[in-house]
Amino acid sequence: MADRDDVCILLPTYNEAETIESVVSGFREQGFDNVLVIDGGSTDGTQDRAESAGARVVEQSGSGKGQAVREAVTRHIEQPYVLMADGDATYRPEEADRLLEPLLSGQAAHIIGNRFADMQPGAMTKLNQIGNRIINRAFETIHGRDLTDILSGYRAFTRQSFQRSSLTASGFGIETEMAVECVKHNISTAVVPITYQPRPDESDTNLRPFRDGATIILTLYQMAKTNNPLFYFGSVGLGSTVVGFGLGAFVAYDWVVNGISHEVIAVVGSFAILLGIQLLMFGVLSDMLVAVNREQTRRLEDIAVQLTRENRARPADVFDDQQIDDADRSDGGQPDHADTGTSDRVEDGDAETEPAVSTHQPDE
Hints:
Spore Coat Polysaccharide Biosynthesis Protein SpsA, Chain A, GCTrfase_AglJ, transmembrane, seven-stranded mixed beta sheet, transmembrane helix
């Protein structure tokens, strides 16, 4: 089983000088020597305090939490397991084993810490709680999985599963993308309870509730295009169809009751109905293609796993004759047929067989 040396603690930060030192020290006290702080160009001394606490500090090349996480995992982390947390001291380092236990034991490849399991008073405003509930419910509706708290910043995952995901978010949408990609690629995911505590009074949040919330919801909808195309196209198609029938009902009512015709509105309504039906049909066909693609991908992954197991089970000293001959030629020699006790030599077109000569000399 893997140990703490195989885990890298990832802390994306931006102006977290008031808390980063205690966060880094907390993880190091838990036995984690690989602590990486990737900073977005803080101006309050965050990098210096992180280094003094024993972390390896890297300044990200771009901006935003999402870009920082992607850059850190792909460029600066070599360990097979990653434990990601925030640098604002809202998560407890002593609860790291809750996330790592199912990860290191192979039970799941992505672990999410559920903040709602033990949320301390004042840790999250009522507005943010309502927004989180709405986003989690929207995720369940659109992508068909209930992961309880998809916006949690305390999570653990394998670097391999991260590299399988197609992540593009640059800001706080990175957690949303990771959750969607887990569902899309059928990455085994588990949810564990954690404690979510308030930020220290002197620490300021970088979260903008309305703007970031709208971005996250938009990300959820956009990613439905490849994960749940029936919802993506069907929702627009259904809306267009309803609008078309509404316009048609108005035109019919006004013509029957008042004798007034609305040719333009009738044309627009008919167009909306046709567009809506076409989008619904396209959504159904796209959903079928996605289902077939997932099944084929799953079969290919099963074959790859089976081949890997067979190669590992194959003894290292099993070679066929051709492999032995190739190895001899690569050493500049001739194939050795030691099993016959003779060596073949061809001279002037005639083949003659000579006894094998032993290199052992008699003792004098």
